[in-house]
Write a structure and sequence with these properties.
This protein has 184 residues and is an alpha/beta fold. The chain has 5 helices and 8 strands, in the order βββαβαβαβαββα. It binds 5-nitro-6-ribityl-amino-2,4(1H,3H)-pyrimidinedione. 5-nitro-6-ribityl-amino-2,4(1H,3H)-pyrimidinedione (INI) binds next to strand 5.
């Protein structure tokens, strides 16, 4: 299938020109997702999960195309996401968790390891893995970001996963076209 690419006009030093634009759509139909959810601070994290499932559902993902995978805490997210990515089953993975500074003396450690590990798993596997982990000072901030004043970080992370899954499919199509051309 050929990548359908849009173009857009932008001002250059040399007048308006048309540029090719490559971005992922927000449609999830036909795509498979895993949502890795930690149990720690489950009061908050379950709200992130509801937000993520809402985003996937609204974007057209069918229930049987989404697997919810449970892990104990944020530190277990990277390895689990990496193993899931390596199965080749999923177009994108969403990681959800909640780390609250007040509750841990190793707050920085948990946050850093989770974020670094998830980025490494994504880069290593080539599968988009979005970071839906709240790293907050207190419970109020967590509640705000889990569906109250500041939206729902789980919804945002799922939306990012959908967009990135579609974007990477387009980039793969571009590289398939490029390698066909180079064989001619
Ligand atoms: N895990 C979290 O997801 N959030 C936290 O706030 C947290 N605190 O407070 O320590 C936390 N710790 C557990 C950690 O993620 C691991 O599950 C545990 O260390 C076992 O490996």
């Amino acid at each position: 299938m050929k990548a359908k690419l849009n173009s857009f006009m932008a001002e250059t030093g040399n007048g308006k020109k048309s540029f090719r634009e490559i971005q992922g759509e927000l449609t999830a139909s036909g795509l498979r997702f895993a949502v890795v959810t930690s149990r720690f601070n489950s009061f908050i994290t379950e709200r992130l999960l509801s937000g993520a499932l809402d985003a996937l559902n609204r974007s057209g993902a069918s229930a049987d195309a989404v697997d919810v995978v449970r892990v104990p805490g944020a530190l277990e997210l990277p390895l689990t996401a990496q193993k899931l990515a390596q199965t080749g089953v999923y177009d994108a993975i969403v990681c959800l968790g909640t780390v609250i500074r007040g509750e841990t003396t190793h707050f920085e450690h948990v946050c850093n390891e989770a974020s670094k590990g998830i980025a490494t798993a994504s880069l290593g596997s080539g599968v988009p893995i979005s970071f839906g982990v709240l790293t907050v000072e207190n419970l109020d901030q967590a509640v705000d970001r889990a569906g109250l004043k500041s939206g729902n970080k789980g919804f945002e992370a799922a939306t990012t996963a959908i967009e990135m899954a579609n974007l990477l499919k387009k980039i793969q199509q571009l590289s398939a076209v490029a390698s066909r051309k180079s064989r001619r």
